[in-house]
Amino acid sequence: MEKIKDERLILRNLKNIRIAYIIQTAGILGILGYDIVTKGFDGMRENPLWILFMVSIIVSAYLSMNVSVDYESGEKSPKKGFLISFFIVFLISSVIGILTSLSEGFTIVNGVIIGGILLVCGLIPIVYIYYLRTKRQNEN
């Protein structure tokens, strides 16, 4: 097989892939919707399609981040954006951790664990975007 070099065919192929992705996502959502109606929310989450749906959404979000960083103007400082994003995620995770520890039935350890999990989950995309921005800045 030869690699396709015609840009029109590449664009058409990408459009076909997008349509297949939309149909696949609609099918997964339909099956999960049926599960939520018949088995409830816990029954839906037990379905392996739930994991597939979550993974595909996460991968799609990271691929979109790559495109959005390429679309940005080159004037932004990657370090400044990283520090602002880090401060905001740290603030949000701290507030949620404190509110969790003050809630009935939860201890300070629960608040620290939940706040830490939110901090780590928030840092992963921030570090990825920082990496993409510095990589793009070094290329230019």
Order of helices and strands: HHHH
How many E-type strands? 0
Structural class: mainly alpha
**What coarse outline follows from CA principal-axis ratios?**
flat
Spans of at least 5 consecutive residues with low confidence: none
Radius of gyration: 21 Å
Distance between the termini: 34 Å
Query: Which bin fits the share of residues in helices?
Result: over 70%
**Individual helix count:** 4
Provide the residue-averaged pLDDT. Answer: 86
For the report, how would you describe the main beta sheet? Answer: none
Number of domains: 2
What percentage of amino acids are in beta strands?
Answer: under 5%
Keywords: Membrane, Transmembrane, Transmembrane helix
Transmembrane segments: 20-37, 49-69, 81-102, 108-131
Protein name: Lysylphosphatidylglycerol synthetase-like protein (DUF2156 family)
Organism: Gracilibacillus halotolerans
What do you see in this structure?
By secondary structure, the chain is an all-alpha fold. It has two domains: 71 residues; 67 residues. 86% of the residues lie in helices and 0% in strands. The chain has four helices and no strands. α2 crosses α4. The chain is flat and about 60 Å long. It starts with 6 loop residues before the first helix and ends with a helix. The mean pLDDT is 86. This is Lysylphosphatidylglycerol synthetase-like protein (DUF2156 family). Keywords: Membrane, Transmembrane, Transmembrane helix.
